[in-house]
Amino acid sequence: MTSIVVVGSVNLDIVATADRLPAPGETVTGAELGRYPGGKGANQALAAARLGADVCLLACVGKDAAAGEALAMLRAGGVDLAACIAVDEFATGVALISVAKSGENQIVVAPGANRALMPEHLAIPAADALICQLEVPTETISYAAKTFAGFFCVNLAPARRVDVTVLQRADLVVVNETEAAWYGDSLAACNGMIATTYGAAGAVLQKNGEDLARARPPRVQVVDTTAAGDTFTAALAVALVEGQSPQDALNFACAAGAAATTKVGAQPSLPTRDEVMQLL
Ligand code: RIB
User: What is the dihedral of CA 107, 113, 116, 119, to 10 degrees?
Assistant: First the structure.
């Protein structure tokens, strides 16, 4: 079984689903309210587990009721949470998410305890791959890049400055088109593969500026795009580490990401391997 370590965030997502997203300064009413486990790190950990990997999550939560809610699906999904730390000084991370009927969203994150995940907390076990994102301190990501020996994947989301050594070290960098534009020429420092996602238009996998694969997702009824990028990232890393070809791995990741858009909420929407195979 493929073993994956995820270093990243845990949030409780408070989700309002409305007809449309508000413009700045506008109030939209009539929404349905939901609470779901989320956070890019937690989503990627559970996505990898549902796709069949053996997953361990290194993260920080607060000592509060939200922590139990935020970790419940990871626990039920078999993710190893032994290295998740409950800290005194911060509350569990919270994401306020507005979702429109079209499936588009807006997210504001209050990181809380995710700010507390520092290098000294990381006892990184040996594994086939490590996946991280940028909702935890960047020095922690730099430390993981330096000390982990296996396949290293970084999802550069949300976009923020990272040490160039992280880009140089990464075997796989994942960005969406907005993040790709934000990073611009600095992505030229990447020595490994870069996957760029374009929503319903699919994704491209490149290395040294050359295309390795291009794929389009299957057509699905989009309900909520939250965690589609997280699912894509986990699926691509799992498939590449399993030894799938770049084209097969990208097809698999696009189908997994599409599947995640068909249900409301981050973690409730993460597909199993069987669900992805049915879409392919
Ligand atoms: O990528 C989706 C995630 O981003 C949400 O679950 C939310 O918690 C934010 O971190």
Answer: -80
Confidence of residue 20 (pLDDT cuts 50, 70, 90): very high
Task: Determine whether 230 is an active site residue.
Answer: yes
Ligand 1 centroid – CA 249 distance (Å) = 23
The domain that contains 128 carries what CATH number?
3.40.1190.20
Active-site residue identified among 13, 171, 224, 230: 230
> Could you give the number of structural domains in the chain?
1
Residues near 264 by Cβ (< 8 Å), separated by ≥ 6? 15, 17, 34, 36, 99, 223, 224
Token pair of 40 as six digits: 């890019």
| Ligand 1 atom at minimal distance to the Cα of residue 37 | 6
Average pLDDT over residues 247-275: 97
Q: Write out the residue range of the structural domain in which residue 260 sits.
A: 3-9+39-87+114-270
Q: Kindly state whether residue 275 falls inside one of the protein's structural domains.
A: no
